[in-house]
Amino acid sequence: MPLIIYKSHDGNTQEVHAEVGTSIMQAAVDNGIDGILGECGGCCSCATCHCYVDPAWVAKAGEPDSTEKDMLDCVLDPQDTSRLSCQIVITDEMDGIVIAMPESQY
Q: What sign does the CA torsion over 63, 24, 96, 7 have?
């Protein structure tokens, strides 16, 4: 199972092994990671799972589709690597991916 590293706004990290095919959001929710709420359950309709993908991992995480881009227009503190973690599906190639959470979600 790939290792996902969640990084809080203050630099603390939590490591989680997650099933391939699970979303970054669901792995966070299942493991009690603060900063990713996922209030809509992964439907790409609330942006409470906003995260920043570490620049080294952007290519592996893929590009947001048009629906996700529209939702990202609504988040606080957007960055070039902003994504909705419900839309990032974990693959074997993501072993070690670093996901940071914005301070606004704490």
A: positive
Instruction: Name residue 17's beta-bridge partners.
Output: 3
* Contact (CB, 8 A) for 85 and 23: yes
Full-model pTM? 0.95
Strands 97-100 and 3-7: parallel
Q: How far apart are alpha carbons 6 and 38 in whole angstroms?
A: 15
- Dihedral angle at the C-alpha atoms of 34, 40, 41, 42, nearest 10 degrees? -90
Phi, psi of 24 (to 5 degrees): -55, -40
Distance CA 106, CA 94 (A): 25
DSSP class of 41: S
Q: Two tokens at 58?
A: 């952007």
Q: Which helix (H) or strand (E) holds 25?
A: helix 24-30
Residue-wise pLDDT for 19-50, tens only, equals: 999 999 999 999 999 999 999 999 999 999 99
